[in-house]
Amino acid sequence: MSASDRVPTEILDLARSARRVTVLTGAGMSAESGVPTFRDAQTGLWERFDPAELATPEAWEDDPAQCWAWYAWRASLVRRADPHPGHVALAQWQARPGIDLWISTQNVDDLHERAGAGVLAHVHGNLFALHCASCGAPADVDYPPITEPVARLDPPGCHQCGGPVRPGVVWFGETLPERAFQDSVEAVQEADLVLVVGTSGLVHPAASIPDFAGARGVPVVEINPRVSKVSGSVDHVWRAPAGQALPALVSALD
Ligand code: BJW
Ligand code: ZN
Predict the structure, then answer these.
(1) At 24, phi and psi to the nearest 5?
(2) Ligand 1 pocket check for 173: Cβ under 6 Å
């Protein structure tokens, strides 16, 4: 079977004619690299860990060492992971002549970048952009290398003010980086085609970004092996994992 046989015809037609493509990715994009999603049954992080105790500003205030230890483990998981063929396919599509392809991700990992893609926006921040929780200064430190979750590790101190260094991620109740959110909205509004890959569509305001495409009549395609909150409002659904669908789609463009 050729690559084009595996791609739904309407989706292939849209992809072949699109000159400006915006790809919105969530945790499912990284799943086949071995980075767990948040809400998948059995394997999702929130099945084992309580977000209220780890991913809120209140959790950090109450117990920064518990949060820091968890993010150190998360960072080690990401560092041990490699981009999969879906990440590579997006980088290849982005490199094609005459194509503008913008990636906006909710993921805090760096797998798109390590596959060679440029990322327009990390709307929930970047795990590795460490900074001081007190004064905001960027911190030239790193997570300790751990391979298993541990209960507590004291965060390092800021070289400017001594405050605790925190991960550069967006926790529940925190606002998204304004530029990243606005750039993502503009990218879907200006696109000929929007792909929504591997997100449950449960977390706002990121989940509202595809709606700005619909409002402009830009076709929206979901790639996700399971039904999501996004599924009912997109134009086409492709029930396949990102690591299979994206390479098939990009191979079939010619
Ligand atoms: C595959 C696959 C494969 C599997 N291939 N696919 C309205 C109502 C109620 C509450 C709110 C509301 N609006 C806003 C809120 C509050 C809150 C919120 O949305 N809560 C909801 C949960 C109800 N939002 C916020 O707090 C946001 N800030 C905000 O609103 O600011 C304004 C404000 C400020 C102050 C007061 C009030 C308002 C901030 C949200 C920050 C989210 N942060 C996290 C953690 C980041 C750090 C970290 O990594 O630890 O971001 S939570 C977590 O969820 C992470 C993700 O980016 C985010 C989204 O998850 P995602 O990517 O969708 O993953 P999953 O696991 O949910 O889904 C995976 C999908 O992949 C599934 O569909 C699978 O099927 C699929 N999949 N394998 C393709 N191989
Ligand atoms: Zn500081």
Answers:
(1) -105, 115
(2) yes
